[in-house]
Amino acid sequence: MKHYHVCWGLFCVLFMWVCEQGFSQRSYLSVGAVPTYKTDGYGIQLNANHYHSTTDFLQLSLVATFSKEMPNAGVEFPYDDYWFNLGYFTTVLTSPKRGISFYFGGGPSVGYKHINNGETEFPFDAVEAESSFIYGAYASFEMDFFISDAFSLIVPINGYYHFNSDLHDTTLLLGAGLRYYFK
Known about the structure:
nine-stranded antiparallel β-sheet, 62% strand, elongated, mainly beta, 9 strands
């Protein structure tokens, strides 16, 4: 009978430890939405961060941008970018009393550039570009201003370089949005 109670007690402790580890992982997750500005356009960035320490985190982000290219005064054509980014970020500066943190990071970026609504004919000879998959890298500097325990205002500055892009291989995105921290 004594052996049964010891086994049951060990099982309960193990079960509580597993549940605690599972639920504690939720406190290491945040999601954010950032409207962005770029030259001749706008976009949206959705990201999820996993904090594996107090100073570093991994970020998955989806970015969609919409622009109009104007190679000369009389002609313009639309192009859209859709990117998936995986980045590693580290803390540059933090002040927990004031609720401010600055992060720097980056990583690989892959996506699709949709040019001129899929049309390959342009009314001018200045550009030879077609829609295609693109790949490259990005770097980001993020400022995080805590509003409450669960919300913060984020201000990211993202720079992208896509090696095989036919149109604008470098892109700069500026934005401001909200981040929610799961508890």
